Amino acid sequence: MKIAIIGTGYVGLVTGTCFAEMGTEVYCIDVDKEKIENLKRGVIPIYEPGLEEMVHRNYQSGRLSFTTELEECIHEVEVVFSAVGTPPDEDGSADLKYVLEVARQIGRVMNRYLLVATKSTVPVGTAQKVKNAIREELDKRGVDIAFDIASNPEFLKEGAAIKDFMSPDRVVVGVESEQAEKLMTKLYRPFLLNNFRVIFMDIPSAEMTKYAANAMLATRISFMNDMANLCEIVGANVNMVRKGIGSDARIGSRFLYPGCGYGGSCFPKDIKALIQTARQHGYTMRLLQAVEEVNEDQKGILFRKLEAHFDGRLDGKHIALWGLAFKPETDDMREAPSLVLIEKLLAAGCAVRTYDPVAMTEAKRRYGDQLYYSKDIYDAVVDADALILVTEWKEFRLPSWSAIKKLMNNPLVLDGRNIYDMAELEEYGFIYHRIGR
Question: What is the pTM of this model?
Answer without folding.
Answer: 0.91
